[in-house]
Design a protein that fits this description.
Layout (H helix, E strand, L loop, with lengths): L1 E6 L8 H15 L3 E10 L28 H11 L5 E10 L3 E9 L4 E8 L13 E7 L5 E6 L10 H18 L2 E6 L10 H7 L3 E2 H4 E4 L5 E2 L17 E2 L2 E5 L5 E7 L13 E6 L11
Parallel strand pairs: 1-2, 7-8, 10-14
Antiparallel strand pairs: 1-15, 2-4, 3-4, 5-6, 6-7, 8-13, 9-13, 11-12, 14-15
Helix pairs in contact: 1-2
Length: 293
Amino acid sequence: MKLLTLNTHSLQEENYLQKLEQFVQTICQEKPDVVALQEVNQSVNAIVAEQKFLKGYVHCSNNEIPIRKDNHAAQVAFRLFENGITCSWTWISAKIGYGIYDEGMALLCLNGEIVQTDSFFISECQDYQYWKTRKVLGVQISGCKDWFYTVHMGWWKDEQEPFLAQWKRFESALKQKCNTTTVWLMGDFNSPAEIKEQGYDVIKNSGWYDSYTIAQQKDKGTTVEGSIDGWKDDKHNEQKQKSMRMDYIWCNKAVPVKYSKVMFNGIKQPKVSDHYGVCIETNDIKKGRRSYL
């Protein structure tokens, strides 16, 4: 099983259409089973998407925002279909971003159909107009008992929406699923592994397994370099890290991982966002476990 996560920055990126095409071509080559995306935007004033952009779309029951034509997930899925790649996908919006976007997250499944969705708030605030409002989105795929969540957490020291409170809500909501099946958390956790006794250590000490640390093969793991949105303020970046690993794929079980690699960092693939992506492939087929597809 191959999983990929990326904080896309989507419509906020310069040369967006070029980066969109580069991202899609890489997905066509890599063919991950599940793609978890964060900061998946659409313009609030864009027209509602035509039917051709909704192929493979599965509606999440508590998402009241219509899919618009420039929705990043819809554009990715549309191009995948044009390239002969079947895709089942879903999207939710959590808030207004930068005053002009419906900002949310998406999951795309290339080798199976979405059969269940799940979405809930992890922030205390549920105001759609407030930029710190946070939701998560999860799916189950046909032939698979695992749950896959796309995640975008707040910051450790945030005065209004601290990381720890969000994590406790998240973990509580997942308790029943974690007791019965395998759960994957993929995304931008806004908590660098380099900073001790904060978000990363909290998740690890809660019994979750970082796929990067247990991977048989791995690279440096850096997913952010330089100053990006949300980390330009020193109160979040107390150690003034120039490079950070803050995008992860966590699992509630110690599933064997063949490799973990950073993608879209300008080395093997072009940069398409202010974050780099993370891709893993599990070794569980060799262990006799095929809980997917």
